[in-house]
Amino acid sequence: xxxxxxxxxxxxxxxxxxxxxxNNYRPISLCNTVYKMVTKIIVGRLRPFLDKLISPIQAAFVxxxxxxxxxxxxQELIHSIDLKKGNNSFMAIQVDLAKAYDxxxxxxxxxxxxxxxxPDGLISLIMSYISSSSLSILFxxxxxxxxxxxxxxxxxDSLSPYIFLLCMKFLGYxxxxxCMEKNWIPMKASRTNVEISHLFFADDLMLFAKVDKKCxxxxxRVLNQFCLESGQAISEVKSRIYFSPNTPxxxxxxxxxxxxxHATTCLGKYLGFPLRHKGVGRNQYNFIVERMITKLSxxxxxxxxxxxxxxxxxxxxxxxxxxxMQGAALPMHVCEKIDKGKIVKSKEEGxxxxxxxxxxxxxxxxxxxxxLYQEKEALWARVxxxxxxxxxxxxxxxxxxxxxxxxWIAIKKGFTVFEKGIGWNxxxxxxxxxxxxKWVKGQTARELIQGPLTQREFxxxxxxxxxxxxxxxxxxxxxxxLDVKDMIKAIPLQIYGEKHDNLIWKGSHDGDFKxxxxxxxxxxxxxxxxxFQGYWIWKLDTLPKIKHFLWLxxxxxxxxxxxxxxxxxxxxxxxxxxRNHEExxxxxxxxCPVAMNFWQKFRTSQNLSNFxxxxxxxxxxxxxxxxxxxxxxxxxxxxxxxxxxxxxxxHRNNMVFQNSPLNPNxxxxxxxxxxxxxxxxxxxxxxxxxxxxxxxxxxxxxxxxKLNSDGASLGNPGKAGxxxxxxxxxxxxxxxxxxxxxxxxxxxxxxxALRDGLTLASQLGITHxxxxxxxxxxxxxILPRKTPKCLYTSILNDCMYLLEKFQQxxxxxxxxxxxxGADSLAKGACSLSSDFVVLDAPSTLDLNVIVNSxxxxxxxxxxxxxxxxFVAS
Length: 873
Description:
By secondary structure, the chain is an alpha+beta fold. About 40% of the residues lie in helices and about 15% in strands. It contains 30 helices and 29 strands. InterPro entries: DNA/RNA_pol_sf, RNase_H-like_dom_plant, RNaseH-like_sf, RNaseH_domain, RNaseH_sf, RT_dom, RVT-Znf.
């Protein structure tokens, strides 16, 4: 490799606030761009195989694995250590590798790559990149002389982490070997749980073992061999051992003599999370508040507007809080320090849209519940399930009173929101309980009826109440209410293929967990609640800082004298400019002679009859929102007015606090700012033009048939129907169909129509089929041939299954004018008395006219909108 391509600069990043030695710095490699490109290509080739190459115990850098998984396992094991009684004691060892990247021996890396059967060419390439580097340290803004390293890997390029993980697997291999030979006795989180001997996250190591001399000797032997082979060194000063309370002091001394690692009563943090121990106080999470205060009290915040500070607070909360909240229930006093008044309300409720710490914590814990259900086979999930969902625990008189870890307490706190947000999508031969699972539009069937059930009815599964894709009510000893029947009949059942029941999140379109909807559930908000009169402020077409100012006006929080007097800050509320009236917000912005003179220069009073007589709220909303107001020099008044209010407020403050003179050209400056904003934001650079295009139905090619299908819903959701037509290459009617669906949404009706059409085409023996729909969302879901987890997964699975039955299929979206026949049948099906009807010929005269028009190539006109570029005159 060319030497200049591997020249690397070393930047020293301090690990603490007052570094006193080189050990307090972390060296970061600033690699050459070409070097980074090549290593990224290598990593891209390796990434698909990493999951198989790297042990599941190693949670770092592997796609799909999270550090939180290791935190959960560590927390459970520490909790179990705290509860240990009797003769068997256990220990957790935090091992610190000193300068782990810098000490890695190159010959050891070569051996590891060989052991993983990397191709010789790739090994040579990787080793050349590692061994040919030259380093220069950045010092006081300059570059020191180059030197050649003899070991270690870069801490700053994309390949190094994966090289390190592969090398760490050797340590895992040594540990597993000792465990198999019974020299090292690993630990279990509960009696029937999986055995855990070690947890790795890059160079963060935690070891778990029984406390005895044999295990200690085994641990020492493993660490010594690993360090000897790899060049690593254990920092005995930073490493610590946590013993279970039943460990004798004499045994602790023996372990120290063997390992040279001191005992501790608190392991501190693991991957940023405090490891909770017995007797640890409620102040363990105070560092979160302190860290946020440090981030928000920097000098840069003094130069930010209210809108800028709002963005900063959101980013700081996202960076600091979200990580901690995903695996721990923060104490109430910590959340109360973060949540302040109305700013943590949603914008619809009159707040600034900053998320409540408590509600977000609950929402993230609901996500942990979701992950626990979806990842049952993952190691962290198995540890929790075996520990807290075992048969012995369920058989106890009061399982809730049994001891549990802080992680499980946190999971239980998020369970209520998780339970509210989930629903079920029925698979074929569904095993869900007919009465007790949430499969009826996110509710249980039991919630929809009153009265007792027999034991046989109570144990009914959904599969037992269905027969060949339809509902069989004979298994019930009573008649369900008509509205309940309609709700159930509108749920599409999967007819073809074998698919399991799917857990879905009701608040998302694709069925996957959505944090935003979980947060709303945690806040007990309605999805369409808009209680704040001034919510329109956030939709204004103006600068963010002006939106925040208008928000302050609505909340009577602009610091004018009257507001300050009402809060007991000052005693004189007289306007400092006119000395005739109290300085209210409205007086400041409109009624003061200075403001009146300013507004008259816009000559708007003749067009706004109530301009000087409206209340503050009405005055702001009328001028900001009324689309019928005038334009000034071509700029809409709804853009000019907010900028004028803001500039008037700033200019008035300069007059009051800096004794600046009145600027007679202030209105001109406002117009200049409004014009600049209008054109910089592209408002005047494009204009919408309408045009008419011809749309018609096209015949399929020779030997092909065409299916047009459509669904309709009167109300969405409401009474729904579906219909479709199958025609040949001459445009002749082959078959048509109609079906009534009861209460449903238009998208489910569209899918149902497609399934009926594909089923009918398959029964007719058609092999080459073109499919046209006017619902683009359905086409977009069908074309990738991937089934999302959503409310209509079952019927989508059927459509996918049926499409595979044809030799060739083509699916495309068309405008409604090219789908008139199917649209007519779908609308007619909404009032159909029978369930399903197959038509051998057009059922109405109008439908016959449409079919003949399509066959003859007659077109309809459709109005479309074109965006044309702005051309200056």
